[in-house]
Design a protein that fits this description.
Number of helices: 3
Helix content: 25-40%
Number of strands: 0
Shape: flat
Order of helices and strands: HHH
Number of domains: 1
């Protein structure tokens, strides 16, 4: 799957050819982002990944033990 994605998908921003698609994929902060006092509750902007990876959903954060939650928050702050 990774080979297929790397072959056919690009992050190149050729605005002339793909303007409509690029505009659909951008996040613009709105009122809904700032609910609960966060800058963006959807955590945008997302950092780029160094390589293509297939990700699995994270465990429910509230059900993790305190040490694992702390570790995740520290890594998020580093990013």
């Amino acid at each position: 799957m990774v080979s297929f994605v790397d072959k056919y998908i690009t992050c190149e921003n050729n605005v002339n050819e793909m303007e409509d698609l690029v505009n659909s994929q951008m996040h613009r902060h709105a009122k809904t982002c700032k609910k609960m006092g966060h800058v963006c509750r959807f955590n945008f902007p997302l950092p780029p990944m160094s390589k293509t990876m297939v990700l699995t959903p994270l465990e429910d954060f509230d059900n993790l033990d305190q040490d694992k939650q702390k570790h995740i928050k520290q890594n998020s702050d580093k990013i």
